[in-house]
Amino acid sequence: MAVKVHLHLTLRQFTNGEEIVELDGKTVGECLKSLVRKYPAMESSIFGKNGKLSNIVEIYVNLQSAYPNELAKPVKDGDEIHLTMMLSGG
Amino acid sequence: MLTDEELDRYGRQIMIPQIGEKGQEKLKRAKVFIAGAGGLGSPVSIYLTAAGVGHLRLVDHDTVDLTNLNRQVCHWTADVGRRKVESAQEKLNKLNPNVTVETLSVTISEENASELTAGYDLIVDAMDNLPTRYVLNKTAIGHEVPFIHGAVNGFEGRAMTVIPGKTACLRCLYRGPVPESKFPVIGVTPAVIACIQATEVIKVLAGIGELLENRLLAYDGLNLKFTEFKVQRNPQCEHCAHL
Q1: How far is CA B174 from CA A47, B171, B191, in A?
Q2: Domains, chain B, ranges and CATH?
Q3: Domain range annotation of chain A
Q4: pTM attached to this predicted model
């Protein structure tokens, strides 16, 4: 059992449409690094400069906001990370 | 007191035990500020008018464009070129003359937001950009009134209710500025989110139900899924930490 990462709609273009990717990692940061290693084209959609999360990205662990310090949040097998995007239209 | 016409007009919602005549009178006495008369603002204002919220202030600086008509249902083909607030007011008045629809064709800014919203029971976020949303978030906190957040993109949407001093606010999750760009959207998406916002407004005013407090409701229209994310107050939030 690994960590399930639920990807936002706009990120699924990099995974051939797959919404959920199973990855290993002890923290959110490790899981996202694994994600980007598996799908390198996704990196610039998730991370901005200096390896920080893009301002538009939101991370939830088991449906609970991981903000702030999202990358340092611990996760274990069976946990679910939602990687979603802030919306601004109206 | 409700008139005979109002008892008739709102009869079907008065039948709802959580509303009743007392709830309807609360709606009638209420004053709601709606920031925006576009994709979200159109359905929000239509449903709050239909429900009999007594006083609405609708603010939008824009004029109707053909590109608005796939979603901004207060505005019709013949309205292209008109101020959105005038176009909306005309339809809302015809829908329900019992509701006072006050309109202002101005740009909401840091400088005027407090004055524009003073005396209103809550603020509805029907904006199309984040910077003004944060202005309204801060303003709602300053007035200590609920802020009903909504946002859309394509087939996706989200909604959350901010109760100053009690729940997370929009700024509690802020990481930094986000570049603004033209967003894709189909009318059914803001329709869903606006109806959720209008539902929250009615619940706040009538004092009923469970609000989207510390709950960010995310809508995926393509897969017809709702996901509820839990959020929490940020003790360092520059908008609400002092409350």
Answers
A1: 16, 5, 26
A2: 4-230 (3.40.50.720)
A3: 3-85
A4: 0.97
Per-residue pLDDT of B61-119, as tens digits, reads: 999 999 999 999 999 999 999 999 999 999 999 999 999 999 999 999 999 999 999 99
**Which class does domain A3-85 fall in?**
alpha beta
Contact residues, chain A, for B152 at CB < 8 Å:
87, 89-90
Question: Is the Cβ pair B151, A65 closer than 8 Å?
Answer: no
């700024």: which residue's tokens? B171
At which residue do the structure tokens 């709601």 appear? B32
Q: Which chain B residues touch A88 with a CB distance below 8 Å?
A: 128-130, 133, 151, 153, 178, 180, 183
A58 interface with B at CB cutoff 8 Å: yes
Go through A39-50 and write b for each residue having 16 or more CB atoms within 10 A of its CB, e for each that does not: beebeebbbeee
* Chain A residues within an 8 Å CB radius of B177: 55
A9 interfaces chain B, CB cutoff of 8 Å: yes
CB contact under 8 A, B128 and A89: yes
Percent of chain B predicted with pLDDT > 70: 100
Q: Report phi then psi at A76, rounded to 5.
A: -135, 170
Q: What is the ipTM of this complex?
A: 0.95
